[in-house]
Specification:
mainly alpha, Leucine-rich Repeat Variant, two-stranded antiparallel ribbon, 35 helices
């Protein structure tokens, strides 16, 4: 009977009668009972019939049918209004709200939205019916209905036609649109953001909300706490919303809040550039450039000398105009250069030369008359090469006191090979040479200077590890060093440890089996090639091969040179991290260097596998991690979790369970909290990997 009831369209007659009763002040208990039965009918029938449920009661079939019935009822309401009769639409609004809050927005709105879009194109009565339909939804169901419409709509103009000024009339809808969707959630697509913010911009009553939304978005974007504790995905989401808002603002609206926008922009770009994550820094640059170009149309704008490719910005309104502006500037430069060539070709005497500069967007010109001079023929000139020093002490003299630039360049280029060829001479002056290289600055524009200096430092450290490692680790916590020099020390320690821990040679490949036969011919024979070809073909035709020998690699066995010096690399770095200096505070503003230090310790721990000191290193590293486990910077937390992985992979399982049982239990509990609560996705992934490593260790034992 129920199946026949649905198939004959009687549910629309039932809802129409409920609307009429509601207009005549019918029983609220009856209305509530009807509402519950209509919305939950698939659940009730499914619970009774179990596996014998007819297809018409399946949710994917029932709710589109219910959507069609709602359209029929709305049509009757439209006819009644045109005939001068009163009707109530509240019951239909309650049905729509309850269906949406039960998670069936997709099924019912896939029928409602296209029909309402067509009916409201040119009919003002249908527009009023649609507005009342969403306005009468109770507040407890309003969020589900608004999100359903926003996600289904293909454009902001259609959304404006269907919802009207709902966000102005209903506080709950206003909270959902201006706060919850934009600031508290970040799961929606770019199309949803464009629909939502475009909807706010299409009516004069809603545009103040657009300005308010932009100010709140920029306030969140410029909050240092939000940058530290919110995941990168949410910050990308907020950045998209800011760019879309900017594209909808008019000049008069920008003028009214220019100072607030400027303040938020300056605070926000500082917070983003202070972040240790590259994607957050790039995000701050692109948003700051966009805001600056909007609020400073006449004056100077922020411009970062970084080429940024933001894949997630593709298709975002407002971002295209920045690219168009950049292309326009490049076009101006190209035109200026073309004009320069034309001017140079058109004058013969005292030609005027135009120069276009990008910094101040102006043209300078000056007179010159040296074009008629005949240049010297320098085609046969040869470059004079300066001979590099051949002794280590000569290199030290050149690097410290020589004014000969060519000799200085030759010394920098040859220093690494010279150190590796003369280990005995290097050990005599290793610490002095390490000090010189640490403070060495580039005198000329030598190609790859930073890499050449780093390779030389690594060569010195691997040649004489203990004294040089003592010097470098002591200088890491010393005064009067820049952050760049401290990070150079960490890089050199890692590269040297990696080189020391690897075997020096990788073996030779030998072919098993007998040597291939060959025939030697006299070198003066003219037909030697023909003879060789004939003989090879005969051998090939008369030789039967059952299998070919496998290549065998004989690995050269060599001691792990890092084993005896691992402690000199590791323990001095872990000692003084909590002692702030005048110009260096790892636990304060220099958290980026702390992140690099933590990652360095993780690598050193991993390279110390199978060494004598690995157990002591692992225990010290676990204590270090425990002291910093609640650090606010996600880059530092990622390094701490990498340290845990290195300990689990490097320390023998027996020693882990015998010597570090208590630390491991505490660490396991902390890792569980990280997996559940950490806002950074990489931190959650690393914590989960560590928990799996712990489970594997337990299974092995």
């Amino acid at each position: 009977v129920l199946e026949q009831f649905l198939q004959e369209g009687r549910i629309s007659a039932l809802m129409w009668e409920a609307c009429q009763q509601q207009a005549q002040a019918g029983s609220p208990e009856l209305q509530e009972a009807l509402l519950s039965k209509i919305v939950c009918l698939p659940d009730h029938v499914g619970n009774k019939l179990q596996g014998k449920n007819p297809p018409v009661f399946f949710p994917q079939n029932y709710f589109p049918l219910l959507g069609g019935a709602i359209i029929q009822v709305l049509q009757k309401i439209s006819d009644s209004l045109r005939g001068g009769l009163d009707c109530s639409i509240s019951f239909i609004s309650h049905v729509l709200g309850k269906v949406c809050v039960h998670g069936r927005q997709k099924e019912i709105l896939s029928v409602l939205v296209p029909r309402l879009t067509d009916l409201t194109k040119s009919d003002c009565i249908w527009q009023r019916i649609c507005w009342r339909l969403v306005e009468c939804v109770p507040d407890r169901w309003m969020e589900a209905v608004v999100l359903g419409f926003v996600q289904r709509e293909p454009g902001a103009d259609i959304l404006s036609r269907l919802l009207g000024n709902l966000v102005v009339k209903n506080k709950k809808a206003q909270f959902v649109v201006t706060q919850k969707v934009l600031l508290l959630q970040y799961c929606h697509t770019t199309a949803v953001l464009q629909n939502l913010l475009g909807y706010l911009s299409l009516d004069s009553l809603r545009r103040p909300l657009l300005i308010k939304v932009l100010q709140e978005l920029l306030e969140t974007w410029s909050s240092s706490s939000a940058v530290k504790h919110s995941p990168p995905e949410q910050q990308q989401y907020i950045s998209k919303a800011i760019l879309i808002c900017l594209s909808h603002l008019k000049e008069a609206e920008i003028e009214s809040c220019r100072q607030e926008l400027l303040t938020s922009m300056m605070e926000g770009v500082k917070c983003h550039l202070d972040s240790n994550l590259p994607q957050i820094r790039r995000l701050g640059m692109i948003v700051a450039e966009s805001v600056s170009s909007k609020i400073n149309t006449d004056g100077p704008v922020l411009k970062f000398q970084v080429k940024v490719i933001m894949k997630f910005m593709s298709g975002v309104q407002g971002f295209e105009e920045i690219e168009a502006l950049s292309q326009m500037i490049q076009g101006i430069i190209a035109n200026a250069n073309t004009y320069l060539e034309i001017r140079r070709g058109s004058h013969t005497f005292k030609k005027r030369r135009y120069l276009f500069t990008e910094n101040n967007n102006s043209c300078f010109y000056f007179f010159y008359s040296d074009d008629d001079l005949i240049p010297y023929d320098m085609s046969e000139d040869k470059e004079l090469k300066t001979k590099a020093p051949v002794y280590i002490r000569d290199c030290i003299e050149v690097l410290t006191g020589s004014e000969d630039v060519d000799k200085w360049e030759a010394t920098v280029q040859a220093l690494e090979s010279l150190v590796r060829k003369n280990p005995a001479a290097t050990r005599e002056v290793s610490v002095e040479l390490a000090k010189i290289l640490l403070h060495l600055e580039e005198k000329t524009c030598i190609e790859g200077f930073v890499l050449l200096r780093q390779r030389a430092q690594v060569a010195v450290l691997t040649t004489d590890p203990i004294p040089v490692a003592k010097y470098l680790t002591s200088q890491f916590y010393s005064l009067n060093y820049s952050l760049r020099q401290r990070m150079d020390i960490l890089d050199v320690l890692v590269l040297a440890a990696q080189e020391l821990s690897y075997p020096k040679s990788h073996g030779k490949t030998k072919r098993s089996g007998a040597q291939k036969p060959c025939i030697q011919l006299l070198p003066g024979s003219d037909s030697s090639k023909d003879w060789r070809k004939i003989v090879d073909e005969r051998i090939k035709s008369k030789t039967r091969r059952f299998a070919t020998g496998q290549s065998q690699v004989e690995l050269a066995s060599s001691p792990n040179e890092f084993s005896s010096v691992a402690g000199y690399f590791f323990f001095p770095l872990i000692q003084h991290f909590d002692r702030p200096l005048t110009t260096f505070d790892l636990l304060g503003e220099d958290h980026f260097v702390l992140g690099r230090l933590v990652h360095t310790l993780a690598i050193l721990m991993y390279l110390a596998v199978n060494t004598v000191a690995v157990t002591a290193m692992g225990k010290a590293l676990l204590e270090f991690v425990w002291a910093l486990r609640f650090h606010t910077d996600s880059y530092v937390r990622q390094g701490l979790l990498s340290c845990i992985s290195s300990v689990l992979l490097s320390v023998p399982a027996e020693h882990l369970l015998e010597d570090m049982t208590e630390e491991l239990l505490e660490t396991q509990s902390w890792l569980g909290d990280v997996v559940e609560k950490d806002p950074d996705g990489d931190c959650r992934r690393l914590a989960l990997q560590n928990l799996l490593l712990m489970e594997n260790l337990k299974k092995k034992l």
